[in-house]
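Entry for the shared binder. Reason: the reviewer on the internal report wants the predicted structure included alongside the sequence.
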Amino acid sequence: MKLDYLLLDVFTRDQLQGNALAVVLKADGLSDPEMQAIAREFNLSETVFLTKAKSASNAACVRIFTPYQELPFAGHPTVGAAVVLGLQGDRSAVRMEEKIGLVTALVEKADKRTAEARFTLPKLPVKVADLDNRLGIAQAMGIEPEDIGCDLFTPAVYTAGVTFHLIPVRNAAVLARVRPNQAMFGEVFSHDHNSAYVFTLTPEEPENDIAARMFGMDIGEDPGTGSAAAALIGLLADKADLGTGQADYILRQGKEMGRLCRITLQLRKEAEVLTHGAIGGYAVIVGEGKLDLD
């Protein structure tokens, strides 16, 4: 069995920036264990496998694997898959079947290897719990308790398909000096993947509104985490001064790793209730190859 694959950098227009992604094309002949083994072989934060859609009106079925497990949904694989399908099929709207449900992305081509994709969240974020152990959070993050909190935001757990512990910090300087103590994550960040998404507002940075870093999920630090940004939309919506209206944000992630990502976030509320959430970004193809599994 020989399978073509593409390598992309997601949440960026610049090659060798953003969050790397492998996309395996026409993967219908692979079993689930084989997909998992290939994801371990690539050893990226996620690998996408494109298979034939169940419905003829959809572009593909999208399977998303970390090196250790399959995910029902993830942001940078969804953006990357949409860009691949949009570039290959010259589509402006791409409908993808994911484990979480049907995802529709709007794709705008920039050139033959670069495009921007934005998709509506298949599941709106919801709050799971508050996080009150500030001392434990501070110790797990390598910062001081007084560094925790930003504007109206306090630590909380949200999910839009994948659960994240959202940790606001005082400013970008605090964010940059976070040094996580992974040994404490299981105790302090006890929900699902034991992951911490640390963020702050960045009024001093004209290129973006929010900065973030993500730790956990068995990958250390991740340069660009769309599913965490999707969860963050829930917290933003809960604190946004919008009875009815729309808010748009640009979030940067990965700067501290030398892999700068920019993620667009959009939320809409009607009568104080979140009714729409979307994330997006660019992706650029940086390479291609062939898996030889004979």
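Summary line for the report: The longest strand covers residues 273-292.
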